[in-house]
Design brief:
globular; 282 residues; 2 domains; alpha/beta
């Protein structure tokens, strides 16, 4: 009933804990599609070991013809999925035991919704985590999501596969940051319907190699540059159908980024900044 899709890259030491949390689900009607992104450690061996013991794990390697990165692996995994529902997940996070059971029950109760959303908490050890401090819905959901006032993380949504099948594009494989934000923003702009199950269902691991850790310690300049790139891709992927709103958001970030680049004398970023500007003016 549920296809769990996980991209994997160099997670040899963390995979077992993640996959064990899936095996411990109280809901048993799932398949887990694991797409290795060219790992250079023993990750692929770990995946095959789990698949050898549990047939619900299905291991693939990203085709060489597909771009490298988690977005590409998720898109490839989706093509292999056969479940009624789609659950994207990350290779270093933990599912709480009732996650799938409660989300499946909730989406079945809310038939008019394209997906349902629950929350994540952050952890260093699975026994030490605190409730999340973020919102997934508001009175102005689309605008607040675009402005990062509310959000849901990668494994937050449980989608109806029939809804995703209708999308011309899933994750943008040109983005290595904000790809979930760009994809979920696209769905919200198109008028998708979703409902919040206000519970913590999974734990987000914070460690030196996690995406959050890598980008939270990056220079502020690079973070601004990546945010503008995601906004530019969102504008392109929506076919300029929301031009007024996109330009409003773009100019605000463009001005802030310009001042920041000047302040830190990061002149090389102005090329990317101006490329983004030209994309919006076309």
């Amino acid at each position: 009933m549920v296809s769990i899709i996980i991209p994997v890259f160099n997670r040899e030491g963390l995979l077992a804990e993640t996959l064990d949390s899936i095996i411990r689900q109280t809901f048993s009607d799932w398949e887990c599609i694991l797409v290795d992104d060219g790992s250079q450690d023993r990750s692929l061996e770990v995946l095959h070991n789990f698949a050898g013991k549990e047939a619900r794990f299905k291991v693939y390697e990203r085709p060489e013809s597909w771009p490298k990165g988690a977005p590409s692996c998720r898109n490839f995994g989706f093509l292999k999925a056969s479940g009624t529902y789609i659950q994207f997940f990350d290779s270093d996070d933990i599912m709480l035991p009732e996650m799938l059971a409660e989300k499946v029950s909730f989406i079945q109760e809310n038939k008019g919704n394209d997906f349902v959303v629950s929350k994540m908490a952050e952890f260093i050890t699975p026994d030490e985590w605190s409730p999340p401090n973020y919102q997934c819905i508001s009175r102005n959901t689309v605008e607040d999501f675009l402005k990062y006032r509310i959000y849901f993380l990668t494994p937050g949504p449980l989608f109806r596969k029939s809804y995703l099948d209708k999308q011309s594009k899933l994750f943008d494989d040109q983005l290595n940051k904000h790809q979930e934000w760009e994809f979920y923003s696209r769905l919200l702009l198109q008028g998708c319907q979703y409902k919040l199950l206000d519970k913590v269902h999974c734990l987000r691991r914070i460690h030196d190699d996690s995406i959050k850790s890598i980008f939270s310690t990056s220079q502020e300049v690079e973070a601004k540059n990546l945010k503008l790139k995601a906004l530019t891709r969102l504008n392109r992927n929506t076919g300029n159908n929301y031009r007024g709103l996109m330009i409003k958001l773009f100019w605000k970030d463009y001005i802030r980024s310009s001042f920041l680049f000047l302040k830190y004398r990061k002149f090389k970023y102005f090329q990317t900044l101006n490329e983004s500007l030209m994309s919006f003016l076309r």
